């Protein structure tokens, strides 16, 4: 037995969000139809989406968003729903708001497209609708999906959903620093480039070493791998390369520690053709330290712009991205803790790029007291566990070192692993 979904018009948006909620989150088999006669005669569990029900099926009243194929300025109305505001209110429906339009609005980052269309400024989480609606701190789409599941089970107790389990995936990022090249002329050129290129971290790393703040990537990688040796899962590493020839980059110790690990490219967001070249050069360097880094993954912790960043990532052959989150504010940027295929609102189509959303970073935790940071960690892990989602967090490799400056963060990282049950 499966679910049969009826709508008079089956738009790409409708198919996308229904597939995400029912197949990806709830793990149910679904079938779409626009044929009312076929729908009414079917013996499957029936759900309709439109202006009015066809019979006694589960009916979800629709709003206009999913029937459109254009990116238009909208300011969603809301209705009080428990402790928060839910957008796209409707009447005489299984839920008092259009849950599918609301979910699509969040997961597609509709408001961020509009923001980038109108200004070059960075999109701030405090300006987001999710913040205004008080749902940023919860994987609200997954919670709504469980409500839909409960409604279905109430009407059709015999219907079975496939099991979905909680998962935990920490991500760890670091910069590979260049070393001085051989030969006086090469060294002179290199030092001058380090003075004038802000991308080159060589001089600042030297200063860190002199002041005792410097961190050995090789040593920390070895320590982290020991921590994970007794765990069920492994971290996903993201590496940023300096803009210097590969000959200047010291990788011997690092590639040994990354040999059996999953590795992706850090900071690949590209907003122009020059940056596209940098992505491709970064991928070439990544393959030199990790030849089997496929499928290619990426993470962007700086400004993530829609749709240009994801378009250029896709055009570079990257198939999975871990950039969806706010580096300085905890929360579920796309409203979900379930991986999803990115929907391009400009082309109105589903893309092959799989987006994995993080909800916490070490940057956020470092400014909290120990008690507050631990409480925040537990809160977000619990929120994801309740809906059987995937808990993603982002950490800098230096935060996991034994340097006194990062002692609190390393202890929090270990607490996270233990509390998540991995």
Automatic annotation (TrEMBL):
Entry protein name: DUF7033 domain-containing protein
Superkingdom per UniProt: Bacteria
Organism expressing this protein natively: Pedobacter jeongneungensis
Segments forming domain DUF7033: 95-173
Listed InterPro entries: DUF7033
């Amino acid at each position: 037995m499966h679910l049969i979904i009826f709508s008079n018009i089956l738009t790409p948006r409708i198919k996308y969000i229904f597939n995400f909620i029912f197949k990806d989150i709830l793990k149910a088999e679904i079938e779409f139809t626009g044929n009312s006669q076929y729908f009414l005669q079917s013996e499957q569990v029936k759900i309709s989406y439109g202006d009015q029900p066809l019979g006694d099926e589960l009916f979800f009243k629709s709003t206009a968003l999913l029937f459109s194929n254009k990116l238009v300025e909208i300011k969603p109305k809301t209705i009080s729903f428990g402790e928060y505001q839910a957008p796209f209110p409707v009447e005489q429906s299984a839920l008092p708001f259009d849950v599918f339009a609301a979910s699509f609005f969040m997961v597609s980052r509709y408001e961020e497209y509009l923001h980038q269309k109108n200004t070059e400024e960075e999109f701030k989480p405090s300006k987001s609708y999710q913040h205004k609606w008080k749902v940023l701190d919860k994987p609200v789409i997954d919670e709504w999906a469980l409500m839909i599941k409960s409604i279905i089970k109430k009407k059709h107790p015999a219907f079975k959903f496939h099991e979905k389990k909680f998962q935990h995936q920490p991500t760890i990022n670091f910069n590979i620093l260049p070393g001085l090249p051989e030969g006086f002329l090469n060294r002179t050129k290199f030092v001058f480039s380090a003075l004038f290129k802000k991308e080159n971290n060589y001089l600042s790393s030297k200063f860190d070493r002199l002041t005792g703040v410097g961190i050995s990537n090789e040593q920390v990688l070895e320590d982290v791998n020991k921590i994970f040796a007794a765990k069920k899962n492994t971290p996903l590493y993201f590496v940023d390369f300096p803009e210097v020839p590969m000959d200047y980059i010291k990788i011997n110790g690092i590639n040994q520690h990354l040999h059996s690990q999953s590795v992706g490219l850090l900071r690949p967001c590209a907003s122009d053709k020059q940056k596209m070249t940098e992505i491709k050069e970064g991928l070439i360097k990544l393959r030199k330290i990790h030849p089997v880094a496929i499928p290619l993954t990426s993470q962007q912790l700086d400004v993530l712009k829609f749709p240009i960043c994801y378009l250029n990532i896709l055009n570079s052959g990257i198939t999975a991205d871990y950039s969806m989150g706010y580096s300085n504010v905890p929360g579920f940027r796309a409203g979900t803790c379930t991986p999803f295929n990115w929907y391009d609102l400009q082309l109105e189509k589903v893309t092959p790029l799989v987006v994995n959303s993080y909800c916490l970073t070490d940057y956020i935790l470092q400014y909290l007291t120990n008690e507050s940071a631990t409480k925040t960690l537990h809160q977000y892990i619990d929120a994801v566990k309740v809906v059987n989602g995937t808990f993603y967090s982002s950490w800098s490799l230096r935060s996991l070192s034994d340097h006194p400056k990062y002692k609190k963060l390393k202890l929090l990282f270990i607490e996270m692993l233990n509390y998540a049950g991995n």
